[in-house]
Amino acid sequence: MIQASYKTVTRQISNMIRLPIDLRQFNWRQYEWIIVPLLAFLISRMVVFAAAVIGDLMLPADPGHWDPTPGNHLLGLWARWDSQWYDWIVNEGYWLRPGQRSNVAFFPMYPLIISTIKPILGNNAVLAGVLVSNIAFLAALIFLYRLTDLEFGDRQGAGRTVVYLAIFPTAFFFSMMYSESLFLLFTVAAFYFARRHLWAWAALMGLLASATRVIGVLTWGFLMWEWLRIHGWTIESIHRRETWGNLWLALRKDWFSVLIIAVIPLGLLSYMAFLQLTFKDPIAFSTVQSAWGRENIGPIAVVLADIKDIVVEGASQGTVARVLNLATLITFTGASVIVWRKLGAGYAIYALLAILIPSTSASQSLIRYAIICFPVFMVAGIYGRNIYLDRIWLVLSGMLLGMLTIIFVNWVFVA
Q1: CA–CA gap between residue 164 and residue 175 (Å, rounded)
Q2: At what angle do helices 218-230 and 199-210 cross, to 10 degrees?
Q3: How far apart are alpha carbons 403 and 396 in whole angstroms?
Q4: Which of 37, 225, 274, 362 is the most buried (most CB within 10 A)?
Q5: Domain ranges of the chain
Q6: Distance from C-alpha of 300 to C-alpha of 89, rounded to nearest angstrom
Q7: Are 174 and 199 in contact (CB under 8 A)?
């Protein structure tokens, strides 16, 4: 009797707390595209957060730096260096000082989104910026997982891809008040929708990317390349007469898709129009680069100049930064060849230009710019099936991520 009553009571309690979904019957694989990126995001952000706090407690920063959040030191850890330019744009608007560093160098989409949600968060621009960065990064990882799985049909490879990106040595920028995560989201989403031939969505993402950073206009080239490819136009068949005939027929039947894709540069052009109306200089974002010591001399000249500086300076903080940036340039440039073989010319050209365009003026910050070269990480995720390569990458990258985060939050310039 007592045993029967006990079973009845326990059954009633179980029914009271029973989840709406039976976890034993829950199809986890159906939601891997959310679960795996979410885990990669959470674990990597825990590493970054812990490293930032430890670095702040153990290493004293030089005094005299900008205090982004008076009274909230922990939040201020996520606003360093270029974050101040975005803070100025949000709170003061754009300004141009000829011959001096000016905030017109930074494109408007990221600060525009921050300005939109800032009133909801007590008019705290840094809090809004950090929130936008982290949400955008999680969304970017989800799109990247879907895109990698779409291209390779390999969920494990897609999982490794998002993990490799999330723990890349400079992946802490995805949580900083920087535009990297937002730009990554728009570009990966543009590629994903383009591969599914959802041209309107792809064009919208590309337009937003071109309003976030100047190289966002490269998505226009990829979308057009993809449109050409599905209509039978490839580099290998360019010499065939029927290729051009098919292209003409495709233009007649599907001209509206081409028109939609053509809106992508409007993000860049709208900012140029604003600069012309406000400052009479439509390319002010490029003009002011000289104030940062940047001059378009080409990647080869940049590499030679850095090698010379490394030899002259010897062991120093500047030398370590140059070595890391040069190694990044060489690695990602070489990896574009593998990207071509595995993913095709469109992905490879994007990855190559995304790293070469910034290197035309200086190698500085290339280790940061590399984190938006997502096709390289897609290929790395596939090659990561080799357990030795996988373990080596996870250990080395994770250690460097922690180290660089520690020194960056202490106002040591990394990238």
Answers
A1: 16
A2: 160
A3: 11
A4: 37
A5: 30-409
A6: 34
A7: no
